[in-house]
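Honest question from a wet-lab person: if I give you the sequences of every part of a complex, can you actually get the arrangement of the whole thing, not just the pieces? Trying it with mine:
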Amino acid sequence: MSININRYKCGYCGACVGVCPGGALELVETWVEANDCCTSCGLCAKICPVGAIEVKK
Amino acid sequence: MKEMYDLIVVGGGPGGAIAAKNAAELGLDVLLIEKRQEIGDPVRCAEGVSKICLSDHIEPDPRWICADLTGSRIYSPDGTMVEMSEEMSGGEVGYVLERKVFDRALVDQCARAGAEVRVKTRATGLIVEKGVVCGIYAMHLGEEYEIRSKIVIGADGMESKVGRWAGLDTSLKPADMETCVQYLVTDIDIDPQFCDFYLGNEIAPAGYLWVFPKGENMANIGVGVLGSKSGDHRAIDYLDKFMKDMYPEGRIIEMVYGGVPVSGPIEKTVSDGLILVGDAARQSDPITGGGIINAMEAGKIAAEVAADAIKKGDYTTNTLNEYETLWRSTIGKEIEYSLVVKETFVKFTDKDLNHLAQSLSNVNFYSLSLKDLLYALFKANKKLLWDLRGLFKDVVNSNFEFKYKNDQAD
Ligand SMILES: Cc1cc2nc3c(=O)[nH]c(=O)nc-3n(C[C@H](O)[C@H](O)[C@H](O)COP(=O)(O)OP(=O)(O)OC[C@H]3O[C@@H](n4cnc5c(N)ncnc54)[C@H](O)[C@@H]3O)c2cc1C
Ligand code: SF4
Ligand code: SF4
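Yes, you can. This is the full assembly:
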Protein backbone atom coordinates (compact mmCIF):
# COMPACT_ATOMS: atom_id res chain seq x y z
CA MET A 1 0.00 0.00 0.00
CA SER A 2 1.28 3.43 -0.78
CA ILE A 3 -1.07 6.21 0.13
CA ASN A 4 0.04 9.57 1.36
CA ILE A 5 -2.44 11.93 3.00
CA ASN A 6 -1.15 15.46 3.38
CA ARG A 7 -2.64 16.42 6.72
CA TYR A 8 -1.59 20.02 6.27
CA LYS A 9 -3.78 20.27 3.18
CA CYS A 10 -6.63 18.04 4.37
CA GLY A 11 -9.75 19.79 5.67
CA TYR A 12 -11.13 16.63 7.34
CA CYS A 13 -14.31 16.56 5.31
CA GLY A 14 -14.61 12.78 4.97
CA ALA A 15 -15.30 12.68 1.23
CA CYS A 16 -12.42 10.23 0.71
CA VAL A 17 -13.80 7.93 3.43
CA GLY A 18 -17.16 7.92 1.66
CA VAL A 19 -15.75 6.61 -1.63
CA CYS A 20 -13.23 4.09 -0.31
CA PRO A 21 -14.65 0.75 -1.51
CA GLY A 22 -12.86 -1.36 1.07
CA GLY A 23 -13.38 0.84 4.10
CA ALA A 24 -9.65 1.40 4.48
CA LEU A 25 -9.96 5.04 5.53
CA GLU A 26 -11.23 6.61 8.71
CA LEU A 27 -11.73 10.25 9.62
CA VAL A 28 -10.47 10.45 13.20
CA GLU A 29 -11.46 13.88 14.47
CA THR A 30 -9.09 16.09 12.44
CA TRP A 31 -7.05 13.63 10.42
CA VAL A 32 -7.56 10.70 8.08
CA GLU A 33 -5.99 7.30 8.74
CA ALA A 34 -5.54 4.49 6.23
CA ASN A 35 -5.23 0.81 7.17
CA ASP A 36 -3.86 -2.14 5.19
CA CYS A 37 -7.20 -2.91 3.49
CA CYS A 38 -6.15 -0.24 0.96
CA THR A 39 -5.89 -1.66 -2.56
CA SER A 40 -4.38 1.51 -4.07
CA CYS A 41 -7.47 1.95 -6.25
CA GLY A 42 -6.98 5.74 -6.22
CA LEU A 43 -10.64 6.76 -5.79
CA CYS A 44 -9.88 8.76 -2.65
CA ALA A 45 -7.22 10.76 -4.50
CA LYS A 46 -9.68 11.46 -7.30
CA ILE A 47 -12.49 12.67 -5.05
CA CYS A 48 -10.53 14.87 -2.63
CA PRO A 49 -11.73 18.43 -3.31
CA VAL A 50 -8.27 19.88 -2.69
CA GLY A 51 -5.95 17.07 -3.78
CA ALA A 52 -4.57 16.18 -0.38
CA ILE A 53 -4.14 12.47 -1.20
CA GLU A 54 -1.52 10.75 -3.35
CA VAL A 55 -1.82 7.07 -4.18
CA LYS A 56 0.94 5.14 -5.89
CA LYS A 57 -0.07 1.92 -7.61
CA MET B 1 -21.42 7.17 30.64
CA LYS B 2 -23.42 4.15 31.71
CA GLU B 3 -22.91 0.58 30.48
CA MET B 4 -26.37 0.24 28.97
CA TYR B 5 -28.94 2.45 27.22
CA ASP B 6 -32.10 1.87 25.23
CA LEU B 7 -30.64 3.74 22.29
CA ILE B 8 -27.19 4.97 21.26
CA VAL B 9 -27.01 7.61 18.53
CA VAL B 10 -23.64 8.00 16.82
CA GLY B 11 -23.11 11.50 15.41
CA GLY B 12 -24.30 14.90 16.62
CA GLY B 13 -25.29 16.49 13.28
CA PRO B 14 -28.91 17.37 12.46
CA GLY B 15 -29.88 13.73 11.83
CA GLY B 16 -28.47 12.42 15.09
CA ALA B 17 -29.63 15.35 17.20
CA ILE B 18 -33.24 15.09 16.00
CA ALA B 19 -33.23 11.31 16.43
CA ALA B 20 -31.91 11.60 19.99
CA LYS B 21 -34.31 14.38 20.91
CA ASN B 22 -37.39 12.59 19.65
CA ALA B 23 -36.33 9.31 21.23
CA ALA B 24 -35.78 11.01 24.59
CA GLU B 25 -39.19 12.66 24.32
CA LEU B 26 -40.70 9.24 23.66
CA GLY B 27 -39.27 8.08 26.97
CA LEU B 28 -36.17 6.20 25.82
CA ASP B 29 -32.92 6.24 27.71
CA VAL B 30 -30.64 7.79 25.09
CA LEU B 31 -26.90 8.38 24.64
CA LEU B 32 -25.73 10.69 21.83
CA ILE B 33 -22.01 10.62 21.03
CA GLU B 34 -20.10 13.06 18.83
CA LYS B 35 -16.44 12.61 18.01
CA ARG B 36 -15.74 16.30 17.60
CA GLN B 37 -15.03 18.43 20.63
CA GLU B 38 -17.38 21.14 19.39
CA ILE B 39 -20.75 20.38 17.80
CA GLY B 40 -21.02 21.55 14.21
CA ASP B 41 -17.43 22.65 13.71
CA PRO B 42 -15.88 22.55 11.17
CA VAL B 43 -18.90 23.20 8.97
CA ARG B 44 -19.48 21.10 5.85
CA CYS B 45 -22.42 22.97 4.40
CA ALA B 46 -23.66 25.91 2.31
CA GLU B 47 -26.31 26.39 5.00
CA GLY B 48 -29.37 26.91 2.81
CA VAL B 49 -32.60 25.43 4.12
CA SER B 50 -36.30 25.56 3.32
CA LYS B 51 -38.28 27.50 5.89
CA ILE B 52 -41.38 25.44 6.05
CA CYS B 53 -39.71 22.10 6.66
CA LEU B 54 -37.36 23.53 9.23
CA SER B 55 -40.02 24.74 11.63
CA ASP B 56 -41.33 21.18 11.96
CA HIS B 57 -38.21 20.42 13.96
CA ILE B 58 -37.12 23.59 15.70
CA GLU B 59 -38.52 27.05 16.36
CA PRO B 60 -36.69 29.52 14.05
CA ASP B 61 -34.27 31.62 16.09
CA PRO B 62 -32.41 34.74 14.92
CA ARG B 63 -29.28 33.45 16.65
CA TRP B 64 -28.76 30.96 13.85
CA ILE B 65 -30.44 32.64 10.90
CA CYS B 66 -28.02 34.73 8.82
CA ALA B 67 -30.24 35.56 5.88
CA ASP B 68 -33.90 35.38 4.97
CA LEU B 69 -34.16 34.76 1.24
CA THR B 70 -36.80 36.15 -1.07
CA GLY B 71 -35.65 34.42 -4.22
CA SER B 72 -32.97 32.93 -6.35
CA ARG B 73 -31.29 33.49 -9.69
CA ILE B 74 -29.80 30.92 -11.95
CA TYR B 75 -27.13 31.85 -14.49
CA SER B 76 -26.51 29.65 -17.50
CA PRO B 77 -23.01 29.42 -19.01
CA ASP B 78 -23.64 32.34 -21.42
CA GLY B 79 -24.92 34.48 -18.56
CA THR B 80 -28.67 34.14 -19.25
CA MET B 81 -30.41 34.69 -15.95
CA VAL B 82 -33.59 33.07 -14.71
CA GLU B 83 -35.00 34.74 -11.65
CA MET B 84 -37.45 33.24 -9.23
CA SER B 85 -38.74 35.45 -6.49
CA GLU B 86 -40.80 34.96 -3.41
CA GLU B 87 -44.21 35.68 -4.93
CA MET B 88 -43.56 33.05 -7.56
CA SER B 89 -42.60 30.47 -5.05
CA GLY B 90 -45.58 31.00 -2.80
CA GLY B 91 -43.82 33.11 -0.22
CA GLU B 92 -41.67 30.28 1.05
CA VAL B 93 -38.06 30.33 0.04
CA GLY B 94 -35.47 29.74 2.65
CA TYR B 95 -32.96 30.74 5.25
CA VAL B 96 -29.21 30.73 5.22
CA LEU B 97 -28.18 29.34 8.58
CA GLU B 98 -25.17 29.62 10.84
CA ARG B 99 -24.68 25.86 11.07
CA LYS B 100 -22.25 26.00 13.98
CA VAL B 101 -24.88 27.69 16.10
CA PHE B 102 -27.80 25.77 14.57
CA ASP B 103 -26.28 22.33 15.12
CA ARG B 104 -25.48 23.22 18.69
CA ALA B 105 -29.04 24.46 19.25
CA LEU B 106 -30.33 21.09 18.03
CA VAL B 107 -28.05 19.21 20.42
CA ASP B 108 -29.05 21.59 23.20
CA GLN B 109 -32.68 20.68 22.50
CA CYS B 110 -31.88 17.01 22.71
CA ALA B 111 -29.91 17.38 25.94
CA ARG B 112 -32.80 19.28 27.48
CA ALA B 113 -35.17 16.55 26.35
CA GLY B 114 -33.19 14.21 28.58
CA ALA B 115 -30.64 12.56 26.27
CA GLU B 116 -27.11 12.11 27.61
CA VAL B 117 -24.62 13.87 25.30
CA ARG B 118 -20.91 13.03 25.08
CA VAL B 119 -18.64 15.06 22.85
CA LYS B 120 -15.09 14.14 21.85
CA THR B 121 -16.36 10.56 21.96
CA ARG B 122 -15.88 8.45 18.85
CA ALA B 123 -17.50 5.16 17.95
CA THR B 124 -14.72 2.77 16.94
CA GLY B 125 -16.79 -0.34 16.26
CA LEU B 126 -20.06 -2.15 16.89
CA ILE B 127 -20.79 -4.87 19.40
CA VAL B 128 -22.43 -7.57 17.30
CA GLU B 129 -23.78 -10.76 18.85
CA LYS B 130 -25.33 -13.50 16.72
CA GLY B 131 -25.60 -11.02 13.88
CA VAL B 132 -27.46 -8.45 15.98
CA VAL B 133 -25.99 -5.03 16.78
CA CYS B 134 -26.20 -4.54 20.54
CA GLY B 135 -23.95 -1.61 21.28
CA ILE B 136 -20.76 0.19 20.36
CA TYR B 137 -17.10 0.39 21.17
CA ALA B 138 -16.14 3.98 21.78
CA MET B 139 -13.16 6.11 22.63
CA HIS B 140 -13.32 9.18 24.84
CA LEU B 141 -10.12 11.10 25.64
CA GLY B 142 -8.02 8.09 24.77
CA GLU B 143 -9.97 5.66 26.99
CA GLU B 144 -11.88 2.78 25.43
CA TYR B 145 -15.44 1.96 26.41
CA GLU B 146 -17.91 -0.81 25.65
CA ILE B 147 -21.45 0.55 25.76
CA ARG B 148 -24.52 -1.59 25.18
CA SER B 149 -27.90 -0.63 23.82
CA LYS B 150 -31.05 -2.20 22.41
CA ILE B 151 -30.73 -0.20 19.19
CA VAL B 152 -27.97 1.88 17.58
CA ILE B 153 -28.71 4.76 15.20
CA GLY B 154 -25.82 5.60 12.88
CA ALA B 155 -25.98 9.32 12.03
CA ASP B 156 -22.28 9.62 11.36
CA GLY B 157 -22.41 11.62 8.15
CA MET B 158 -20.44 11.38 4.92
CA GLU B 159 -17.57 9.51 6.61
CA SER B 160 -19.98 6.94 8.11
CA LYS B 161 -18.46 3.67 9.22
CA VAL B 162 -21.34 2.44 11.37
CA GLY B 163 -23.26 0.96 8.43
CA ARG B 164 -20.16 -0.70 7.03
CA TRP B 165 -19.35 -2.26 10.41
CA ALA B 166 -22.77 -3.92 10.27
CA GLY B 167 -22.22 -5.14 6.73
CA LEU B 168 -24.27 -2.47 4.92
CA ASP B 169 -22.37 -1.21 1.89
CA THR B 170 -22.64 2.56 2.01
CA SER B 171 -19.59 3.30 -0.13
CA LEU B 172 -20.21 5.74 -2.96
CA LYS B 173 -18.82 5.78 -6.47
CA PRO B 174 -17.18 9.06 -7.52
CA ALA B 175 -20.14 9.60 -9.90
CA ASP B 176 -22.42 9.43 -6.86
CA MET B 177 -20.76 12.25 -4.96
CA GLU B 178 -20.35 15.98 -5.48
CA THR B 179 -16.93 17.09 -4.27
CA CYS B 180 -17.09 20.63 -2.88
CA VAL B 181 -15.10 23.60 -1.66
CA GLN B 182 -16.62 26.76 -0.26
CA TYR B 183 -15.27 30.04 1.02
CA LEU B 184 -16.96 32.42 3.40
CA VAL B 185 -16.28 35.69 1.62
CA THR B 186 -16.69 39.11 3.16
CA ASP B 187 -16.55 42.71 1.99
CA ILE B 188 -18.30 41.97 -1.32
CA ASP B 189 -21.25 43.45 -3.10
CA ILE B 190 -24.10 40.93 -3.07
CA ASP B 191 -27.87 40.97 -2.79
CA PRO B 192 -28.50 39.80 0.78
CA GLN B 193 -31.91 38.33 -0.09
CA PHE B 194 -31.08 36.32 -3.18
CA CYS B 195 -29.11 33.16 -3.68
CA ASP B 196 -27.34 32.79 -6.99
CA PHE B 197 -26.50 29.63 -8.89
CA TYR B 198 -24.03 29.42 -11.77
CA LEU B 199 -24.06 26.48 -14.14
CA GLY B 200 -21.71 25.27 -16.83
CA ASN B 201 -19.03 22.75 -17.55
CA GLU B 202 -16.29 25.36 -17.27
CA ILE B 203 -17.68 26.60 -13.97
CA ALA B 204 -18.75 23.41 -12.21
CA PRO B 205 -18.77 20.21 -14.30
CA ALA B 206 -22.00 18.30 -13.59
CA GLY B 207 -22.55 20.41 -10.51
CA TYR B 208 -23.11 24.06 -9.72
CA LEU B 209 -21.53 27.05 -8.11
CA TRP B 210 -23.47 28.89 -5.44
CA VAL B 211 -23.47 32.28 -3.79
CA PHE B 212 -25.58 32.18 -0.62
CA PRO B 213 -25.78 35.47 1.28
CA LYS B 214 -24.89 35.40 4.95
CA GLY B 215 -26.03 38.93 5.65
CA GLU B 216 -24.83 42.25 4.27
CA ASN B 217 -21.68 42.02 2.14
CA MET B 218 -20.96 38.43 3.11
CA ALA B 219 -21.67 35.14 1.37
CA ASN B 220 -20.92 31.44 1.22
CA ILE B 221 -19.40 31.02 -2.23
CA GLY B 222 -18.82 27.41 -3.12
CA VAL B 223 -18.69 24.89 -5.88
CA GLY B 224 -19.66 21.25 -6.24
CA VAL B 225 -18.18 19.11 -9.01
CA LEU B 226 -19.33 15.58 -9.78
CA GLY B 227 -16.66 13.23 -8.43
CA SER B 228 -16.24 11.43 -11.73
CA LYS B 229 -15.22 14.77 -13.31
CA SER B 230 -12.72 15.61 -10.59
CA GLY B 231 -9.05 14.95 -11.19
CA ASP B 232 -6.68 17.32 -12.97
CA HIS B 233 -9.05 20.13 -12.09
CA ARG B 234 -10.61 19.92 -8.67
CA ALA B 235 -13.36 21.79 -6.86
CA ILE B 236 -10.83 24.17 -5.33
CA ASP B 237 -9.44 25.08 -8.77
CA TYR B 238 -12.91 25.91 -10.12
CA LEU B 239 -13.70 28.02 -7.08
CA ASP B 240 -10.42 29.93 -7.24
CA LYS B 241 -11.04 30.72 -10.88
CA PHE B 242 -14.55 32.01 -10.17
CA MET B 243 -13.29 34.13 -7.29
CA LYS B 244 -10.61 35.62 -9.50
CA ASP B 245 -13.13 36.42 -12.24
CA MET B 246 -16.07 37.59 -10.13
CA TYR B 247 -14.90 38.65 -6.67
CA PRO B 248 -11.18 39.45 -6.94
CA GLU B 249 -11.47 41.86 -4.02
CA GLY B 250 -13.38 39.45 -1.76
CA ARG B 251 -11.79 38.51 1.56
CA ILE B 252 -11.90 34.85 2.43
CA ILE B 253 -12.42 34.33 6.14
CA GLU B 254 -13.33 30.63 6.26
CA MET B 255 -12.76 27.53 4.14
CA VAL B 256 -15.12 24.58 3.90
CA TYR B 257 -14.51 21.25 2.18
CA GLY B 258 -16.94 18.42 1.74
CA GLY B 259 -18.59 15.65 -0.19
CA VAL B 260 -22.32 15.44 -0.85
CA PRO B 261 -23.92 12.08 -1.65
CA VAL B 262 -25.97 12.27 -4.86
CA SER B 263 -26.50 8.55 -5.28
CA GLY B 264 -30.21 8.47 -4.59
CA PRO B 265 -31.62 5.92 -2.13
CA ILE B 266 -29.21 3.12 -1.27
CA GLU B 267 -30.32 -0.48 -1.01
CA LYS B 268 -30.50 -0.98 2.75
CA THR B 269 -30.48 1.38 5.70
CA VAL B 270 -31.33 -1.01 8.55
CA SER B 271 -29.94 -4.23 9.92
CA ASP B 272 -30.71 -6.12 13.12
CA GLY B 273 -30.36 -3.59 15.93
CA LEU B 274 -29.23 -0.76 13.64
CA ILE B 275 -30.74 2.18 11.74
CA LEU B 276 -28.83 4.64 9.51
CA VAL B 277 -30.03 8.24 9.06
CA GLY B 278 -29.02 11.35 7.10
CA ASP B 279 -25.78 11.48 5.14
CA ALA B 280 -24.80 8.11 6.66
CA ALA B 281 -27.81 6.69 4.77
CA ARG B 282 -26.96 8.85 1.74
CA GLN B 283 -30.32 10.64 2.02
CA SER B 284 -29.33 14.04 0.62
CA ASP B 285 -31.07 15.39 -2.45
CA PRO B 286 -29.23 14.38 -5.65
CA ILE B 287 -30.04 17.63 -7.45
CA THR B 288 -29.75 20.37 -4.81
CA GLY B 289 -27.34 18.54 -2.51
CA GLY B 290 -29.55 19.60 0.39
CA GLY B 291 -29.43 17.13 3.25
CA ILE B 292 -30.27 18.98 6.45
CA ILE B 293 -34.04 18.58 6.28
CA ASN B 294 -33.89 14.99 5.04
CA ALA B 295 -31.51 14.07 7.85
CA MET B 296 -33.89 15.59 10.40
CA GLU B 297 -36.97 13.90 8.90
CA ALA B 298 -35.17 10.57 8.85
CA GLY B 299 -33.97 11.11 12.42
CA LYS B 300 -37.51 11.66 13.60
CA ILE B 301 -38.83 8.58 11.81
CA ALA B 302 -35.94 6.49 13.17
CA ALA B 303 -36.70 7.60 16.75
CA GLU B 304 -40.35 6.67 16.41
CA VAL B 305 -39.58 3.27 14.93
CA ALA B 306 -36.95 2.64 17.62
CA ALA B 307 -39.38 3.55 20.40
CA ASP B 308 -41.95 1.21 18.92
CA ALA B 309 -39.46 -1.63 18.59
CA ILE B 310 -38.36 -1.19 22.17
CA LYS B 311 -41.97 -1.29 23.33
CA LYS B 312 -42.42 -4.55 21.45
CA GLY B 313 -39.07 -5.92 22.61
CA ASP B 314 -38.05 -6.82 19.06
CA TYR B 315 -34.97 -5.03 17.70
CA THR B 316 -34.55 -7.08 14.57
CA THR B 317 -35.21 -5.97 11.02
CA ASN B 318 -38.75 -7.38 11.47
CA THR B 319 -39.71 -4.20 13.29
CA LEU B 320 -36.94 -1.86 12.11
CA ASN B 321 -37.93 -2.36 8.49
CA GLU B 322 -40.81 -0.03 9.26
CA TYR B 323 -38.17 2.72 9.07
CA GLU B 324 -37.29 1.70 5.50
CA THR B 325 -40.92 1.80 4.51
CA LEU B 326 -41.58 5.16 6.11
CA TRP B 327 -38.58 7.12 4.83
CA ARG B 328 -38.75 5.65 1.35
CA SER B 329 -42.41 6.62 1.01
CA THR B 330 -41.78 10.22 2.16
CA ILE B 331 -38.36 11.84 1.68
CA GLY B 332 -37.28 8.85 -0.40
CA LYS B 333 -39.84 9.64 -3.09
CA GLU B 334 -38.47 13.12 -3.55
CA ILE B 335 -34.91 11.85 -3.52
CA GLU B 336 -35.79 9.41 -6.27
CA TYR B 337 -37.45 12.11 -8.32
CA SER B 338 -34.41 14.33 -7.94
CA LEU B 339 -32.22 11.45 -9.02
CA VAL B 340 -34.04 11.33 -12.34
CA VAL B 341 -33.48 15.06 -12.75
CA LYS B 342 -29.82 14.72 -11.79
CA GLU B 343 -29.21 11.96 -14.28
CA THR B 344 -30.55 14.21 -17.02
CA PHE B 345 -28.79 17.29 -15.73
CA VAL B 346 -25.29 15.79 -15.65
CA LYS B 347 -25.55 15.06 -19.37
CA PHE B 348 -26.40 18.65 -20.35
CA THR B 349 -23.82 20.48 -22.44
CA ASP B 350 -23.32 24.20 -22.01
CA LYS B 351 -25.38 24.66 -25.15
CA ASP B 352 -28.29 22.74 -23.61
CA LEU B 353 -28.08 24.78 -20.46
CA ASN B 354 -28.09 28.06 -22.41
CA HIS B 355 -31.01 26.90 -24.46
CA LEU B 356 -33.04 25.92 -21.42
CA ALA B 357 -32.31 29.20 -19.69
CA GLN B 358 -33.19 31.24 -22.75
CA SER B 359 -36.48 29.40 -23.15
CA LEU B 360 -37.39 30.36 -19.60
CA SER B 361 -36.08 33.89 -19.51
CA ASN B 362 -39.24 35.36 -21.03
CA VAL B 363 -41.67 33.22 -19.11
CA ASN B 364 -43.95 34.84 -16.62
CA PHE B 365 -44.10 32.20 -13.94
CA TYR B 366 -47.52 33.36 -12.81
CA SER B 367 -49.11 32.33 -16.06
CA LEU B 368 -47.81 28.81 -16.01
CA SER B 369 -50.28 26.11 -15.20
CA LEU B 370 -47.33 24.39 -13.58
CA LYS B 371 -47.67 26.76 -10.70
CA ASP B 372 -48.63 24.14 -8.22
CA LEU B 373 -45.71 22.06 -9.24
CA LEU B 374 -43.35 24.99 -9.06
CA TYR B 375 -44.71 25.87 -5.68
CA ALA B 376 -44.01 22.44 -4.39
CA LEU B 377 -40.61 22.33 -6.01
CA PHE B 378 -39.53 25.58 -4.48
CA LYS B 379 -40.58 24.41 -1.11
CA ALA B 380 -38.58 21.28 -1.57
CA ASN B 381 -35.58 23.49 -2.30
CA LYS B 382 -35.26 22.38 -5.90
CA LYS B 383 -33.33 25.22 -7.40
CA LEU B 384 -32.77 24.01 -10.89
CA LEU B 385 -36.18 24.73 -12.20
CA TRP B 386 -35.56 24.67 -15.88
CA ASP B 387 -34.32 21.07 -15.80
CA LEU B 388 -37.56 20.11 -14.24
CA ARG B 389 -39.48 21.92 -16.89
CA GLY B 390 -37.82 19.72 -19.47
CA LEU B 391 -38.82 16.72 -17.45
CA PHE B 392 -42.28 17.93 -16.73
CA LYS B 393 -43.85 15.57 -19.21
CA ASP B 394 -42.31 12.59 -17.48
CA VAL B 395 -43.57 13.90 -14.22
CA VAL B 396 -47.10 14.28 -15.46
CA ASN B 397 -47.06 10.88 -17.09
CA SER B 398 -45.85 9.16 -13.99
CA ASN B 399 -48.32 11.15 -11.90
CA PHE B 400 -45.71 12.13 -9.43
CA GLU B 401 -47.25 13.89 -6.50
CA PHE B 402 -45.52 16.19 -4.09
CA LYS B 403 -47.96 15.12 -1.48
CA TYR B 404 -45.56 14.79 1.33
CA LYS B 405 -44.25 18.35 1.37
CA ASN B 406 -47.71 19.71 0.57
CA ASP B 407 -49.17 17.97 3.58
CA GLN B 408 -46.55 19.55 5.72
CA ALA B 409 -47.50 22.97 4.49
CA ASP B 410 -51.08 22.55 5.71
C1 LIG C 1 -20.15 21.88 0.76
C2 LIG C 1 -21.49 21.39 1.22
C3 LIG C 1 -22.61 22.20 1.08
C4 LIG C 1 -23.86 21.77 1.54
N1 LIG C 1 -24.90 22.64 1.45
C5 LIG C 1 -26.11 22.28 1.95
C6 LIG C 1 -27.19 23.21 1.95
O1 LIG C 1 -27.07 24.37 1.54
N2 LIG C 1 -28.39 22.79 2.45
C7 LIG C 1 -28.56 21.53 2.95
O2 LIG C 1 -29.67 21.20 3.38
N3 LIG C 1 -27.55 20.65 2.98
C8 LIG C 1 -26.32 20.99 2.50
N4 LIG C 1 -25.28 20.09 2.55
C9 LIG C 1 -25.51 18.76 3.10
C10 LIG C 1 -25.61 18.78 4.62
O3 LIG C 1 -24.50 19.44 5.18
C11 LIG C 1 -25.70 17.36 5.16
O4 LIG C 1 -26.64 16.63 4.41
C12 LIG C 1 -26.12 17.33 6.63
O5 LIG C 1 -25.16 17.90 7.46
C13 LIG C 1 -26.37 15.89 7.04
O6 LIG C 1 -26.62 15.79 8.40
P1 LIG C 1 -26.21 14.49 9.19
O7 LIG C 1 -26.67 14.69 10.59
O8 LIG C 1 -26.66 13.30 8.46
O9 LIG C 1 -24.61 14.43 9.10
P2 LIG C 1 -23.51 15.47 9.60
O10 LIG C 1 -24.05 16.82 9.74
O11 LIG C 1 -22.33 15.25 8.74
O12 LIG C 1 -23.17 14.94 11.06
C14 LIG C 1 -22.50 13.74 11.28
C15 LIG C 1 -21.80 13.85 12.61
O13 LIG C 1 -21.33 12.57 13.01
C16 LIG C 1 -20.07 12.72 13.61
N5 LIG C 1 -19.39 11.44 13.52
C17 LIG C 1 -18.92 10.81 12.42
N6 LIG C 1 -18.35 9.63 12.73
C18 LIG C 1 -18.46 9.50 14.08
C19 LIG C 1 -18.05 8.47 15.00
N7 LIG C 1 -17.43 7.37 14.59
N8 LIG C 1 -18.31 8.67 16.32
C20 LIG C 1 -18.94 9.79 16.73
N9 LIG C 1 -19.35 10.79 15.91
C21 LIG C 1 -19.11 10.63 14.60
C22 LIG C 1 -19.41 13.81 12.79
O14 LIG C 1 -18.35 14.39 13.48
C23 LIG C 1 -20.57 14.76 12.54
O15 LIG C 1 -20.68 15.74 13.53
C24 LIG C 1 -24.00 20.48 2.10
C25 LIG C 1 -22.89 19.66 2.22
C26 LIG C 1 -21.64 20.09 1.80
C27 LIG C 1 -20.46 19.20 1.96
S1 SF4 D 1 -11.26 14.19 0.94
FE1 SF4 D 1 -9.30 15.29 1.12
S2 SF4 D 1 -9.78 17.03 2.47
FE2 SF4 D 1 -11.45 15.59 2.68
S3 SF4 D 1 -10.89 14.33 4.45
FE3 SF4 D 1 -10.15 13.26 2.63
S4 SF4 D 1 -8.03 13.94 2.38
FE4 SF4 D 1 -9.01 15.38 3.77
S1 SF4 E 1 -6.65 4.04 -2.71
FE1 SF4 E 1 -8.71 3.11 -2.81
S2 SF4 E 1 -8.65 1.47 -1.25
FE2 SF4 E 1 -6.88 2.83 -0.84
S3 SF4 E 1 -7.65 4.26 0.70
FE3 SF4 E 1 -7.94 5.23 -1.32
S4 SF4 E 1 -10.05 4.67 -1.89
FE4 SF4 E 1 -9.45 3.30 -0.23
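Two things worth pointing out. Residues A 3, 19-20, 22, 24-25, 34, 38-44, 55 surround iron/sulfur cluster (ligand 3) (CB under 6 Å). The longest strand of chain B covers residues 143-154.
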